[in-house]
Amino acid sequence: MEIRKNKGIEVSSEDVVDISNNSMESDLNLHHNIETEKEDQLQKLEGCIETLKSEHKDCIDLFFLQEKCYQEIVEITGYALSKVKSYLQNAKRNLKICMENKNEPQLRKI
What is this structure's pTM? Predict the structure, then answer.
């Protein structure tokens, strides 16, 4: 892209190598930043899951992490189907709130 932008200007092979190296370094840094951000979000999510009530935590674990359907969760936990649905809905809402709170900058109390 740099070469095209500077159309008509002579470019040496050393310039092309420098541009390519800089581009690759930028791509690697971007990839690293994305991976770091994902890891941070996963750690926050794990912390938020730990704050849930046990019923909510059980349903979240079974549904999302173990990929069980509602009926399987009912059979495993003994909860009524309506309770499983309710626990999942409430757990998702609470996780969303928790994650939003953890993403806000913390203000210091003086």
Answer: 0.64
- Model confidence pLDDT, tens digit, residues 15-26: 556 666 666 666
How far apart, in Å, are the Cα atoms of 41 and each of 27, 47, 83?
A: 21, 10, 28
**Nearest to residue 46, comparing CAs of 101, 95, 97?**
95
Distance CA 90, CA 88 (A): 6
- Report CA-CA distances (Å) from 51 to 30, 47, 48, 57, 62: 32, 7, 5, 8, 17
* Domains of the chain, start order: 2-102 (1.10.10.10)
Helix or strand holding residue 65 (H, E):
none
User: Tens digits of per-residue pLDDT, 40-70?
Assistant: 888 999 999 999 999 999 999 999 999 999 9
Cα 20 from Cα 90, distance rounded (Å): 50
Residues 6+ apart with CB under 8 A from 53: none
